[in-house]
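The material for today's practical consists of a large collection of protein records. An example says more than a description, so a record of this kind follows:
***
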Amino acid sequence: MEEWVEQSKAKIRADVVHDRLVKMGYPGSPRSTRRAVNAAKTAWRAGKRRTYRPWIPEPGMWLQFDWGEGPRIGGRRTWLFCAWLSWSRFRVVIPVWDCTLGTLVACLDTTLRRIGGAPTYVLTDNAKTVTVEHIAGIPVRHPQMVAAGRHYGCQVLTCVPYDPESKGGAEATVRIAKADLVPTSANLRGQYASFAELADACRLWCEEINLRRHRATGQIPADRLDIERATLHVLPEDPLALALGEERTVRDDRTVSFGSVRYSTPPGYTGSRVWCRVVGEELSITARTPGGDLAEIWRHRLATPGDPQIIDEHYPDHPDGRSGECKSNGPVSHSVVTESHGKHAWLSRSDARPRPRSRPMASSSSRCRLAT
């Protein structure tokens, strides 16, 4: 049994061991086998137990991040980008639709701007968006991630492959965030009606947990972040547009042009810069939110020229595709709106009524004879 436990690295099941012993002539019960296998596994782990050295982080040195699966919204899968600043224990959770490279850079930009600077190192796992391959045990970084680290003034590192314990802070953040934000029978949280509701819940969760006294440090993470900001690198004014997509300016009709096709945007972004990139069969539009974060504001189905993608909810002041009925600089009273709707209905009915035929006009020769 000890040989089998050593060969399987203490992963072999007791029922498998018992079946092999029975074939060898063992007359004992499965219960005795389970006890013996458990004792053999305990002895094997005791001699090969993993030990740790306490890690004491320095201010402004390490930021860890990882992905966690979020709740489904409208039957569609979401993800939670979870970041953890090691010294201050400050946490950032951002909901997204996918884990592509452009989304990753956008989440990193938002995280760094929330904490107010860039640390020296950013640690994550070996996803293909970060590490392309390993050659002789050395990780080869994705070229755009190298450009992102150079752009923000930090170095992107990865943990030991298949060893999540080497970035335990981010793993704990994912576990805590999923326990509180993903609806389960344990937290009694209801389903999210929209992606905006999930984003608001994540922001509220971050505010609450960063204002709670941390058990390890005995201090509030938001207060420690004020101290750590003095050691962070200054961020560039603009994000890394290479991975975010192509830059566009929202027109007065709240649309952007991408691939000779017009795509509408939500209200509030007229005249501002946005970034458009293709994700599968969709067009992702990223922009600065009113709060200063870089976030995805809408996704459209990719279309061909001649098929503009215009969403009615992006034009609440233009019902049924018409222009505004009341053009006024000040607030419009209810009576004025009612009168406007009444006039529109009366004109619609008047246009639909048949008009009487007009009397035919006499010719010029007839008018001359009458005059004579």
Remarks:
- The chain has three domains: 2-47, 62-231, 245-314.
